[in-house]
Amino acid sequence: SLPMDSLVRQAIAGSPTLDSARARLAEANETVRSARSALSPQVGFTASEGEEKYSASAFGLAPNVFPLPSHFNLFQLGPNASYHVDAFGGVHRQIEAKAALADYQHDQLDAAYLTLTGETVSEALQVAAARAQLQAAAEIVALDKQNLDLVRRSREAGEAPDSDVV
């Protein structure tokens, strides 16, 4: 039989319940990080292409005096940046809600761990108690066999009646 520490380690290592709880905690922590990123500036890069068509009259010119090409390609490239101003604290409340969910998931993991280890120890103690009872019963049977053997020998020697053997 394995020592108690080893039994508990085996139960923890092979527990799909704990694996699932750990995964939910990792997911909750990731949502907290994601929610916190809303407070940081967002930086990106844009590129676009388009075809435009204007007449000279759109610029206040006569088309016959200043003719423009019938159409032209327009390319735009450049960085962009944005920042969400959390004037009313909505983003902070979302972060707090996600952090509370992560705390809850952490508590769920702790509860699953305590339940699993407690049940493992309880089952191990029940097994040990059953083994001790079996051992005690085996010792009683062995003593009874010894007594019966002694009584049989006494009867064969004529020192004990048949009723003692029975």
Secondary-structure map:
Blueprint: H1 4-13, H2 16-36, E1 42-52, E2 72-82, H3 90-156, H4 162-165
Antiparallel strand pairs: 1-2
Helix pairs in contact: 1-3, 2-3
Q: What key attributes describe this structure?
A:
166 residues, alpha+beta, two-stranded antiparallel sheet, 13% strand, rod-shaped
Short summary of the structure?
The protein is of the alpha+beta class. It has four helices and two strands; from the N terminus they run ααββαα.
Low-confidence stretches: none
What is the distance, rounded to the nearest whole angstrom, between the alpha carbons of the first and last residues?
A: 40 Å
SSE string: HHEEHH
User: Structural class, please?
Assistant: alpha+beta
**Rg:** 42 Å
The assembly state of the depicted protein chains is: single chain
Record field, number of beta strands: 2
Which outline best applies?
rod-shaped
Number of helices: 4
The helical percent reads 55-70%
Strand arrangement in the largest pleated sheet: 1-2
